Amino acid sequence: MKRTTLIAAIGLSISMSAGAGEMAFSGPDSVDYSKALWSALGGAKLVGAPSMNPKPYKGVHPHGAVLTTATSSVEVNGHSGKVIVKKNYGGEGVSVDAVAKDPAKYLKAVTVMFQREDGYDSDNQNWFWAKYKADGGLHTNGKGMMLAGRVAKGKPKGCIACHTAAPGGDYIYTN
Length: 175
Fold this sequence. Notes:
- The protein is built from five helices and six strands.
- The protein is an alpha+beta fold and 175 residues long.
- The chain has a six-stranded antiparallel β-sheet with strand order 1-2-3-4-5-6.
- The protein has helices at residues 2-15, 28-43, 96-101, 103-106, 159-163; strands at 57-58, 66-76, 79-89, 107-115, 127-132, 148-149.
- The chain is globular.
- Strand 1 and strand 2 form a beta hairpin.
- It has one domain.
- Helix content is 26%, strand content 23%.
């Protein structure tokens, strides 16, 4: 009995390693929140059709061969916060010019940072992370975990680990 308890405690420790009560990847609350965020982004014409299409530029890994970035504010569940929407383009024939002419043809993902209310994730400036498919569904990682919420918190790779290195200490590379 003690051995079973120890194994269960170790499993809980591993799955919850992001911090007390915080999952390193999305749980049901983060998935629900990601849906509300996608809806707010659509209302602000940051995603979907029709949406703003900023000038494309050459991308960097892991986002895509070609990218566009838009920064704005949106309201989600009564909280207004800064949002950064990066559209990630790829596929055969992708280029800056090709994306400028037909962005929908090459859109592979939409990665979003939304600054939530104080206390959401104070360790990481309260950023909520999501990686959407072009239709608004969530992408998953190699283990099938949906990419929304505190993505890879406490892990050596992933959204949070990469963005902590952004100049200026604000997790944003496009200042």
